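can u pls check wat happens w/ calcium ion
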Amino acid sequence: MAGERILIIEDEARIAQFVERGLIYEGYRVNVARDGQTGLAIARDNPPDLVILDWMLPGLDGLEVCKRLRAAGDVPIMMLTAKDDIKDRVIGLDAGADDYLVKPFSIDELMARVRSLFRRSTPTSRPEILRFADLTLDTGTHRAYRGERAIDLTAKEYELLELFMRNPRQVLTRDVIFDRVWGYDFGGESNIIEVYVRYLRQKTEQDEESRLIHTVRGVGYVLREE
Ligand code: CA
């Protein structure tokens, strides 16, 4: 797995150096940018396999850089933030970040997250068509359909719906959903699953369409017919 190129966009020299050394030690190739504009220029000229992006940057902030990177392609993005605030995390994930790391963090934790992101971004299987009731999910195109109606999904919405459709009629606990969709524990107080289930329901249960994603109070969620 060694040799993948990672771009670090971080203005704090101490943190950038700490992360860079750790990654190089593990065999990754590393570029460092101290501001968003430089980071975007490097990403454009020499596309990285993964981006580690600080939230608080001078000039163009991390959120804006994240949106622009996402608009340009699918590179996995891990945001670094000092803000341990769930609302900010949701904003960041909406902007297209794949993962989050709250400062201060250990190099071991960073490496585990980097490996996890690389695992998740590597396609492991051939495209399939998953079906449940009148819901269809194409794992190749990431498009969903309710009957004939096409549904556009964000990356996280897709992952969550795929998890439900691979486990129909099974109650999925919050812990399982956190682990499988976000790759780590967001913390017990987080409402991010509720937020994303709401997004999915808005998209998959319009007008007269029946409810498919049901809440199991105090436990989690289940995909089943009414
Ligand atoms: Ca910073």
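Residues 40 and 65 are 7 Å apart (CA to CA).
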